[in-house]
Amino acid sequence: MTIAASKHDFDRLWNGAEELAVLTFNLNGETFAIEAIVVQEILDLLPETSVPGSQAFVGSVINFRGKVIPLADIRLAFGMEATRPTIDSRIVVIELDLSGERTLIGIRTDRVYEVTTLLRAASEPPPSVGMRWRADYIDCLVKRDGEFIILPNLDAIFNSRGERAGSAAANSDGR
Amino acid sequence: MTTLDPIQVFRTEAAELFEQIEGGLLDLLHDLSNQDQIDAVFRGLHTLKGSGAMFGFEALAAFTHHCETAFDRVRKGEVSASAELVACVLAAQDHMKALVDRPNGDNAEEGDRLLAELQAAVGGQGGSGTVVTPPLAANAPVAADTAATTWKLSFRLPSNAMANGTNPLGLLDELRELGTCEIRADLSKVPGLNQIEPADLYVSWQVTLTTYQPRSAIDDVFIFVMDEMELQIEQQSSTAPIAGVKAPDTPAAPAAEKAVMEPQARAEASTPAVAEAKNGKAAENVRVPAERLDELMDRVGELVIAQSRLSQLAGSSVDIQLRAVSEDVERLSGELRDTMMVLRMVPVTQLFSRFRRLVHDLARETGKMIELEFEGETTEVDKTVIERLADPLVHLVRNSIDHGLELPDERIAAGKDRSGRVLLSARQSGGEVIITIKDDGRGINRERVRAKAEASGLVQPGQQLMDQELLQLIFQPGFSTAAQVTNLSGRGVGMDVVKKTVEALRGVIDIRSEPGKGSEISLRIPLTLAIIDGLLVRVGSGNYVIPLSAVEECLELSLEEDLRSRGRSFISLRDSLVPYLRLRDLFRTGTAPDPYQKVVVISTGDERIGLVVDQIIGDHQTVIKSMSKLHHDVVTFSGATILGDGSVALILDVIHLINVGQQQEAQLRAAG
């Protein structure tokens, strides 16, 4: 099921095109990329307000131009450790469709690199074995300059939060 | 900018007209001879016909015309209004609504049936020939027993008539439809070419019209422009009646003095057109799409936030001028906010008036006699609240009538009036509006509620329940005590939706019910959804807002009480025990408590709990921002707000906290 779903996500992401414009950033030393089209803005760190009782990976909210938006740490969804903010830390604000509702979400990153173009030819769906992360949270991996860039499946991460990411958050709590 | 779709404009207008017609009809039921209401209904029908034809709703216009004609006879006193007639017109009105929604819908048969009923209702009394002559089908054969009359008309429209949207050619066309016309334009007032204002109207007309239609048909042509125009109508001759005598409902040949129709003279005659014009002046309204209001509301909200930042800056500055400006801005934005709130407020009449029809229909369906009464209709509530409350209230009123009220015979047996009373009332109390549905029916049968709850596993047999808890069970999903399912209610859907909707509006439902005497359900809803007065408190390092309407009082939690109450979490407040929650524990702040903690006592209805906080900062005007879907599972907070320094504070959900407190209390009781 996972492979089929990933294949589907993979096709949807590229949508027949050979190139994809993305924003690349760093999380715990890994390079991630988000489709540039969903990115709204890149912000310096802002004062956060933690939301008691919420799940760890969306544990706080920020004031984004007069709107209160959740601040997510997708590291926790991938079971990575949360690191302390550095001078390079940024918040990437994206807009997603959460079960029919356009939602702005801030994503914590360790460092934002650039807007770049990835080639479909260099990409491959996530392997079903041999990976530390949940395959359905990843759309595809793109090889570039000898390293892999990870394209996370944001829809899966945020929409499935109720059942599955919850366990990831719980794991990170237990650590 | 978006241009408004004219069809949509018509639909909006039609909806208002339907409301007017329906209101008039229902009032008429109480006083069948009330001429004002008859006129109001007639006016509504007439305007609907006119606008309908103007916007191309031909079927609607034709159908409405027949109703109007029938009603015209009532207006003229030829037929007296009756309950059957009102019911007929109400049914016809529903058909009109359908025609507005689906102008091309295939429901002509339904229309014909209704018209036949209508004819039966007015035809029984008061006259030979019925006056049903479709004007839109000009070549249709005219009523045979009417004489053709020749009229000489001359009319002059005001010079700005075309700018106001009147098309004189349209009027002439309408006249032509009435009969043979000879039209002559009077060009004597047309100025020289260099003085012509292209948009002005300089031409007047003289028309010789030979028609079988009555005089009123001619008046109808001009009904929308009558107030501003000069119009003279004179009868020239009446050709020999085609078939015997003149129909009685053709107005007698107008006397000469009546023929001159100067606006002043018309004013006394209280015709529909005049009354309409008066209404128009009395209340000038601008119709604005709700989204624009919402946008404005957002801006004002942001302004309030920016302003509180400014006053924080100014407060820490020594610059006198800056402070003066800041105070001005504070005052202005406060006023702006208040004005904005008023803009969104509409009287609950809008909400209540739709129940008259519902109750009327229900009374017919159930065979019960129902008097619906209103109280406090002028109470104003945020428009969004009104819209969202409409459906829940329908459920509650239906329930009251279907389950609550008894049949007339049962009522008499119980020593009550034959007709049951349902009272809908609204009043404002602090920052809340309380809407009450009260009936004098049989009340809620507690045993049956209990049995049903036990049967469906909501309650354990033998479990102790407070009365209020027991009554609240009716809001559980799938709960229905009706022995049999009727068309109206009893399917167990609805009441839980009512509760959900009310809670989504941050409101509370109270139920009171006395067996045999009746039930009373009160909805307490905050006046507005967008801005609330809140009490800003600090817990640990976070700021939180408690809605001020829920706050009863604040007191200090003394050190010894703090220590003493470790075990039981109750404080005694004027001889009553109030359970309290330590928010720092609930929120797991992980910081050391302040030496002097405060207790904020909050309440909804009869239930109170205390919230222990570290510091009370003060009251705070709060613009509510909703939380995203990602935080919908966090039930402790109903929203968030942005403070003066740009940081976010969360708004506590009072109802939820009180529930938590109650559970805690129950556990403690069970344990101790």
Question: How would you explain this protein's 3D organization?
Answer:
The complex is a heterodimer of chains A (175) and B (672). Chain A starts with a helix and ends with a helix. Chain A is built from 4 helices and 12 strands. By secondary structure, chain A is α+β, with helices and mostly antiparallel strands. Chain A has helices at residues 2-14, 74-77, 154-159, 161-174, and strands spanning 19-27, 30-35, 39-44, 49-50, 60-64, 67-72, 90-98, 101-109, 111-119, 123-124, 138-144, 147-152. Chain A has a single domain, classed as Beta Barrel (OB fold (Dihydrolipoamide Acetyltransferase, E2P)), CATH 2.40.50.180. In chain A, a hairpin with a 2-residue loop joins β7 and β8 (101-109). Helix content of chain A is 21%, strand content 43%. In chain A, the strands form 2 sheets. Chain A has a 6-stranded mixed β-sheet with strand order 9-1-2-12-11-10. By secondary structure, chain B is α+β, with helices and mostly antiparallel strands. Chain B folds into 5 domains: 6-123, Up-down Bundle (Four Helix Bundle (Hemerythrin (Met), subunit A)); 149-242 and 252-265, 2-Layer Sandwich (Alpha-Beta Plaits); 293-346; 348-526, 2-Layer Sandwich (Heat Shock Protein 90), CATH 3.30.565.10; 531-671, SH3 type barrels, CATH 2.30.30. Chain B is built from 21 helices and 22 strands. In chain B, β21 and β22 (648-652) form a beta hairpin. In chain B, α4 runs antiparallel to α5 (108-123). Residues 125-145, 240-280 and 483-492 of chain B have low confidence and may be disordered. Chains A and B meet through β4, β5, β6 and β8 of A and α11, β21 and β22 of B. Chain A: This is Purine-binding chemotaxis protein CheW. Chain A: Residues 19-163 form the CheW-like domain. Chain A: InterPro entries: CheW, CheW-like_dom_sf, CheW-lke_dom.
